[in-house]
Amino acid sequence: MYKRNRLSVIKKVMAIFLICCCILTVSGYKTYATTPKVGIDVSNHNGVINWDQVKASGISYAILRVGFGDNYTSQDDTQFANNVAGCIANNIPYAVYLYSYATNLTGSSASIDSEIAHVKRLISGKNPFAVYIDMEDSSTVYLGKTTLTSFATRFCDSMIASGYKAGVYANTYWFNNNLDATTLFNKGYSIWVAEYNTTCNYTKTPYDMWQYTSSGSVPGISTSVDKNYMYNDITNGGSSNQGTIDVTYQTYDDVNNTWLPNVVNTSDYAGIFGHDVTGVYANLSSGNIYYKVHVKGGSWLPEVANRSDYAGILTSPIDGLMVKTDTGKTIHYRVHLRTTGAWLPYVTGYNTADSNNGYAGIYGNEIDAIQMYLD
Question: What domains can be seen in the chain, in order of their start residue?
């Protein structure tokens, strides 16, 4: 009787755990994610901000509007410079965003290229941890999903080429209907989704941040303020112009049959302990990354560059990983084995014949998590 009751309890606990895993994965963050960081996004509409009080209140980061639309000084956010100075003075990591109303790819009026120039003019010499394009203007919906996605891609690729982490902000409806969210996510862009609710119902891709209210209250800000949860800590990124190159990577989970959230450097690990990794995506904030995987019971698959494709067969666990870059920096990478429950040492090589430092893994032992960084 005791044994049967104990097994019943164990089964119930396991069932609850698996349900939680599914819920958290669908919600866009991993089952082992820590408590999300709370941050704010602000503009001149929030007035003059007392950043000392904001810092003291426990806010972890801020996202500052640089302005809106074309590259005219009249469309700069009038509090941007003050907000940057306040964040720096109080050691608050900050990102930036620009509200877009572009209807053209090129040109000096209502164009993505003009908006790109607008952002770059204002962030020159600064080090935001990410740069976002805010896509929500109803006057652009007629352009259609393909065109709007191409605008977001052009913006993000230009920011990445200048050494910044880039991303797209939109609400759940826009990501579901007006943008090809899967394409944006698979290119490695940060996804920042807005949905004012007690839970976020956006499930098309994982996301780094969720803007959950526009009516928050924060000491030091006299108005209502947008507040956000950050599930993947991307605040340690910043511009590779400062000498740092970030590696962003993710893995495919064979249990939940989904791509897990992007991880930057060693802010976390990609994978879920106990679940086989069957696919890998990776890209750099600057330069190119090349990688390949070994399929358990099989062979090394062809090399993949950046996010031109993923490495792996999504139905087959991997037991080996090789990574290299063209940056001149050293890529360090390691894997966690499901069979032993332990991390293997970091390796830096790229040689299938070198089992010590040429690749990460042990043939026959499934990999359930990976980590990597450059120095």
Answer: 30-240 (3.20.20.80), 245-374 (no CATH)
